[in-house]
Structures are given as C-alpha cells and as structure tokens.
Amino acid sequence: MRSRFAAPLALALCLAFPAHADRVRIDTATGPAEIAALPETVAVLDMAALDTLAALGVPVAGVPSPHYLPYLDKVAAGAARVGTLFEPDLEALAALGPDLIVAGGRSSPRVAALARLAPTIDMTIAEGDLLAEAQARIAAYGTLFARTDAAAALTDALEARIETARNAVAGKGNALIVLTNGGKISAYGADSRFGWLHRALDLPEAYPGLAAETHGAAISFEFIAQVNPDWLIVVDRGAAIGAAAQAAEATLDNPLVAATRAAQAGRIVHLSSAPLYIAGGGVQSMMATLDELIAAFAAHDS
Hints:
This protein has 302 residues and is an alpha/beta fold. Helices cover 40% and strands 17% of the residues. It folds into two domains: 23-128, Rossmann fold; 154-299, Rossmann fold, CATH 3.40.50.1980. The strands form four sheets. Strands 10-9-8-11-12 form a five-stranded mixed sheet. Helix 7 (148-169) runs parallel beside helix 15.
C-alpha cells in the first residue's frame, strides 16, 4: 500500500520541529527526510517497522495494541500502548512525549495528525517491489539509530535466505498464492502485496496477469480448478488477525481443490499468516516466510 502523502509534506513535518545538532537524512515512503539522529523515545505504529527495529535491537517506547505477533511480545511488554494500527491514541502519544513517531501502512493516513505531536516519518512499504523497499527500510533505520553494521548484517542474511529459497523452488513448477477470509478466497499475483514471493524467488505464476489489488482478486473454487496450480500457497487472514472465522483448511476442503495437481501431490502450503499479513516487509517476517517455503519445497526434492 502506498502512502498518499507527498515528499514535501514529509520534510515539512520533520522540519517543523526545532533543529538538533546531529541530523541524518534517510529515505522514507514519501521521499528523503532530514531528522534528528538517535531518537530516544520512539513510538511505532506499523508492524513491519516494529519487526525490523526489534531485529536491529532498537528500544521502542510505544506500540499499537493488539500487535498480533507473538515473536514481538517481549518488545511490546515494556512499551506503552498508543492506539491501534488504524487509530493512534493521540492522548496516549502526547503523554508518552516521543522524540519520533514511526507510522506506515495502516496508520499512514494519520501522519499529518501525528506530526502535530512529534516528528513523524511514514515508513510504508510499497507492494510493487517489497524486497527492495524492505531493504531500504533496514538501511534507513541503521542510519537513523547508528546501527549501520547491524543493518548490513541483516540485509546480507536476508539476501542469503532469498538465494536459498530461490534454489529450493527452482524447477518445481508454478504456484498460485491465495488468501482466505472465512469462506471467501482471493488470489494474488506478482505485483501484489505477496507478489515478492514470485518476483524475488523466480517462482512462476500459475495464472499470470492477476490485477495488483490490495485485497486480491476474488476467485472461486472453479477458478482454482481451472488454473490447476502445481503449488497452492495459502494465507489465512482470519488466523492472522485472531478472528473467529472459518479456517483456511476448512475453506479449501473442496472437491475441486482436491483434484488439483497441488492437492494431489501434497503441495498445498499453509504459511504462518500473521507475520506475512500483518508485518509484510519486516525482516523477521520475511525470514520466517522464506524458511517455511524452503522447508515445504525441499520436502519435494527428487
């Protein structure tokens, strides 16, 4: 999802606050921004940002609630609750008095309101080239928090994992990525929020040309049967957000799906959905997804 704010606004929001002796210039979703380095009290309202900041060991003072991701429980435990991913709590943020607010994704429409409280950056990760965007965010956080060596090490580790996954999927057929939401199903192509799995891994699309819709292209069981993918990669939105909805396994328990090459060969891969759906572009999220794909495809080595 792309931020709706232009680069001049990003700079204006940051420069509206008093200058500091040590400032750095980093890339954000709305363009380059110059802000005070090493902010001490940081509130984060984007899970991909929180994921990567945690991987870099950056202390965080404010987080959204719920945060959905058990692997970030320790980070969240010591932080104030400052609203939800969609609705920041402006009073809680004002009480916290952050030196910096990191917004993005679901919270990006509130950047202007947040910037009236403290310097705010929009670190939304765009869907088109998620891998490159994720690497750019790692580098930006490394510069901002004087952790460039750690950022470089994370980038190297991510690139190595990508290469391992690319080798694991090579020559093993095409894939269709679907998201279930209760009884509804959507498909995602190479230009979508999950499309980096196709693009970065050179994993062929079972149905090229799917529209790059944020919520995917609505499909039916008949569509899955007609496409007849070699692999079916499944994301369960209900599981990701903790909703009491029909699970993906139940939704896809259908004779048309069962007759596909993917089902017949045991090649339906149910990914851990919360990291991918909630924190897409976070470095820990990406590594976990890659590990699951490596394991799934490696299990079908000849």
